[in-house]
């Protein structure tokens, strides 16, 4: 069963949506389930001033992206890069093992978005 | 990529939620991805007068449950039993092969809910 924090971030996701004038966008697919995740970043002075996500993924993907985006908001790009899906799962009080791959989507899409920002800069 | 109908039923799902005084409830899990689906039925004169679903599943599971519940509303229990996930996928103008198993959740949960109703009756 899912933790209360997972259910909270699933039913009431934070930072869902897109950013029109974003500074970096990352999109990744999950080979295991075919789901996709898109992350939009707004960057100011090397810090993430805003972040949004869109996904076609499951409840675990939604909850972990909601938590991951909360955790990197206001952080430097370097700090955001270091956020692992395990840290996100811990902050959610755990995810079932079969759902850990869903939380990888957010981690990978954040990396892609940071790379996209650095490339454009 | 997903069809317009899939995107429509995903972004704007029909019949999402629960029915307090339901006549039958079906809950199934997906061994492949760990997701769950719950279907609530209201039955009048052997016809499905109302139906709602809840899921932790992905966009494909949401879209196919939205479409499946639309397709069985007003139908007899026998007609509803015969609804296959293939017919639902066709009504959605197709689903990627890797996502066909997600559409099984709705079909199986409808069967469970009808069985639950018949058992209680
Ligand atoms: S099953 Fe695909 S993101 Fe969770």
From TrEMBL, chains A, B:
GO terms for biological process: iron-sulfur cluster assembly. Gene3D superfamilies: 3.90.1010.10. Residues 2-121 form the NIF system FeS cluster assembly NifU N-terminal domain. SUPFAM superfamilies: SufE/NifU. GO terms for molecular function: iron ion binding; iron-sulfur cluster binding. InterPro entries: NIF_FeS_clus_asmbl_NifU-like (IPR017787), NIF_FeS_clus_asmbl_NifU_N (IPR002871). This is Scaffold protein. It comes from Methanosarcina barkeri 3. The lineage of its organism: Archaea, Methanobacteriati, Methanobacteriota, Stenosarchaea group, Methanomicrobia.
